Amino acid sequence: MKKMTFKEFKIESNIEIIESIMKANNGYVTSKQLSNLGIHRMYLNNMKEKGMLEKVGNGIYIDSSKIEDSYFVFNLELSNIVFSHMTALYFHGLSIKAPNDKYDITVPNNYFNYKIKKHNVFYVAKDVYELGLIQIDTPMGNKVRAYDMERCICDIIRSKNRMDSEHVKYSIKEYIKRKDKDLVKLSKYADKMGIKKELMDYMELFYE
Questions:
Q1: Does residue 175 sit within a domain?
Q2: Burial class (CB within 10 angstroms; exposed 0-12, middle 13-18, buried 19+) of 38
Q3: What's this model's pTM, rounded to 2 decimal places?
Q4: Is the predicted pLDDT of residue 75 greater than 90, yes or no?
Q5: Which of 64, 83, 90, 153 has its CB 3.0 to 4.6 Å from that of 146, i.e. a possible disulfide?
Q6: Which helix H or strand E contains 134, and what residues bound it?
Q7: Is the dihedral of CA 51, 56, 58, 63 positive or negative?
Q8: Phi and psi, residue 55, nearest 5°
Q9: Which residues pair with 120 in a beta bridge?
Q10: Residue 82 shares a structural domain with residue 14
Q11: Does residue 98 form part of some domain?
């Protein structure tokens, strides 16, 4: 049996740790996670050169055998963004179609990053920014920051001039059919966001 040097042992051990992190995180690992464990990010470059993983974002890597989840990577890169409106409704199963590479996102009023420029960005005050904030699974099973159904319904009504009217109608109709809807919460959100009358008009129109 070939003897292993301490250096080789250390490299092998750190690679095993990185692989265990990827296994626990659906194939993903970040340089920040390694820094927190005191492992140098050079190991990520070594594994990349060996074809063990691929870089998919700033400090974000994925197991080479996995398919990239663009929603998850985007949310990892920009922790202040929240998937909202029609994009979040897609995660809830309430959108007429899947988003393309242009997402509906909400951010605090004072936030800016050049990576959000191509997306549909909605700026809100801090108290509204945190209203209905949850973690939700993407279609590939990764957790991202998004709004709950009730917040999304309020959002598309409040921003109806920036939405496709048919998509708005479809989402509201589908929400009304849902057994897990919370009309009390919906009413509270609408009141907080100043759209109570508009919400009631839509609900009366579509509620059977």
A1: yes
A2: exposed
A3: 0.88
A4: yes
A5: 83
A6: strand 133-137
A7: negative
A8: -85, 125
A9: 104
A10: no
A11: yes
Token output for 172: 């509201």
Kindly state whether residues 200 and 155 are assigned to the same domain: yes
CA dist 131 and 190 (Å) reads: 11
Q: CA-to-CA distance for 116 and 120, rounded, in angstroms?
A: 8
Q: Which domain holds residue 36?
A: 6-66
Domain count, the chain: 2
pLDDT, one tens digit per residue, over 136-186 is 999 999 999 999 999 999 999 999 999 999 999 999 999 999 999 999 999
153 shares its domain with 94: yes
User: Are residues 181 and 88 both part of a single domain?
Assistant: yes
CB-based contacts of 190, cutoff 8 Å, min separation 6: 154, 157, 196, 198, 199
Same domain? For 189 and 114 the reply is yes
